[in-house]
Amino acid sequence: MARFARTAGRVAEGAIREKLTPGVGRKEAAELGNIASYGTARTYSDALKGFVAWRQEQGVPLGDALTWDVKAAAEQYLKVRAESGLSQKTLDKDRQSIECAVGAKFDRVKVDDPAPKESRYISREQAKMVAGAMTPHNALATEVAREAGLRACELATIRPIGEQPPDQRPWEKNRFDGRDNWVRYSVIGKGGLIREVRLEPDLAAKLEATRMAEPQKVMDRDIAREKHYAIGHGQAWSQAFTEAARRALGWSPGAHGCRHGFAQDRMREHQRDHLKGREEAQRAVSQELGHFDPDTTTTYLR
Q: What is the tens place of the pLDDT at every residue in 28-56?
């Protein structure tokens, strides 16, 4: 969805701007089907952008996103969003933004399974929703972090494995089962450990498109790093993730939720697809995360 964000944003802003009547009381504006507050206009524009981008992904021309078969499309979109782990407040805001833009009312959809606040797990679909509310360089960082289980600081250090070989350690041979044909990279983690990570080929191609001609020296929390790709990283990306998650989902697991989501999904994949016992699977996932004590990984599996 991130690739449509800029164009969809302009359409959403334009549609909501037409409904903005500043200087008129809220009640009077509501009676006219309009809004009176610039703050509400910004909130509705952000919410509506997701619907417009979703319609584009469905193959609907941009000019028809808010007109053609919009009632059925809105109902379907709200049902999809209800199953995506966002809050009821955010889903209601989605509905209200579409109602405002198209001048129609839709039935209120209730979330099926509100995200538990104690969990830091974020699914792939939720990560895509968060990425859709971010700038392109931070959106790509979110995709990479979720797909490879990276820490915020590690995003600045990712490089092809041939340029940055992993440390010699007693690595589990089966830790990348199911990802044999994925593209191999490496990152520098805690304690300077260089470990291998892998990205799905299409995502790797997106990453390579941001390769800089010359590496860039960056500072994050007083630590210098050499960055080779123009993607978000570190504290700035982490803060952007939190803010985008609150806009897109209505709650935030924090950027570390990408590692939690990666760990839990990989545990299921190792056990389900490759028939490993829990201990064997946890050893593999632990090393994919950059741990050599499998018990450390238990925190990520709750």
A: 877 777 887 787 888 899 889 889 988 88
